[in-house]
Amino acid sequence: MQNQYYNPEINILLCRCRRVPVTENRWKRSFLPDGFWRLYYHPENHVKIICGDTPVLIPAGQLVLIPPRTKLSYGMSRDFKQFYIHFLAAVPYDRCEPGMYPIETDAAVSLLLEELIPEAERGDFSPPSRVFSMRLEALCGLVLSRIPEKCLNADDPGHAVQIAMRHMDQFYGEKLSNQKLARISGMATNSFIRLFRLKTGVAPQRYLREKRILQAAVLLRYTDRSISEIAGECGFATRYHFSRVFKQIKGYAPAEFRKLDFSAAI
User: Fold this and answer.
1) Could you give the count of Cα atoms lying within 13 Å of 13 in the half-sphere of its Cβ?
2) What is the CATH number of domain 159-259?
3) Selecting from 3.30.540.10, 2.60.120.330, 3.30.56.10, 2.60.120.280, what CATH number does the domain 6-152 have?
4) CATH 1.10.10.60 boundaries in the chain
5) Which residues pair with 102 in a beta bridge?
6) pTM for the whole structure
7) Is 50 exceeded by the pLDDT of residue 85?
8) What are the residues facing 65 on neighbouring strands?
């Protein structure tokens, strides 16, 4: 998989890292699938980011972490260069409150940025070196650790449900019935389903289906595997079933999604 390194111990999936010029036209064309975290760094310029409906001025040299489901745009007055990372993170970080989290650029963060930015600007790694990937992973893990605990626990699903969610995050390609998930969580099946729905707002199988589709979107974007291979890897029995569910959730058939212009995503 291009531009990716996965460490199952901390459940971070690194999908893209670049330092590129950003223009108003490029930002308007930027497209990134749901579920991704964004890490932004603008070392030379002050940048205005509109988070929801609130404009926020980001000082030069400020690192900003933006969780999934956060609505944002740029209030641009001039072009600038941006270092960014796109990544996925599992429980509990996949349920972080939307918003914008400034991260202090202390000595540890600054050292990692100094090592990463020159190589990200060259953009000549495919796949990235293991050392580069490990530095990326270290930076993402470090900034995630700076998120206030209350923002992660705003919709804390509880211990039993977290066990099931973690299992689905790691083994989404396997056959996971409600009975099996309940057994893993140490609960009776009906009680588990009720608790899961109460804590997350969705049924266990819907959560699993959306997790599979999110992973499939990453594979469609960053690999050249066939749609049938991706369907099987993500737990779907047939390509037809996978394509139907993918379009229901993403609004595109898998083949259409793969043709979208992700090159401008920032």
Assistant:
1) 19
2) 1.10.10.60
3) 2.60.120.280
4) 159-259
5) 64
6) 0.65
7) yes
8) 39, 101
Q: Hey, what amino acid is at 94? A: D
pLDDT tens-digit readout, 244-258: 999 998 888 999 988
Give the residue carrying structure tokens 């199988």.
Answer: 205
Distance separating alpha carbons of residues 226 and 208, to the nearest angstrom: 22
Q: Are 234 and 176 in contact (CB under 8 A)?
A: no
What is the 3-state secondary structure of 39-86? EEECCCCCEEEEECCEEEEECCCCEEEECCCCCEEECCCCCEEEEEEE
Q: What is the pLDDT of residue 7?
A: 39
213 or 266, which is more confident: 213
d(C-alpha 143, C-alpha 161), whole Å: 25
pLDDT value for 30: 52
Instruction: Give the pLDDT of residue 52.
Output: 73
pLDDT reading at 2 higher than 50: no
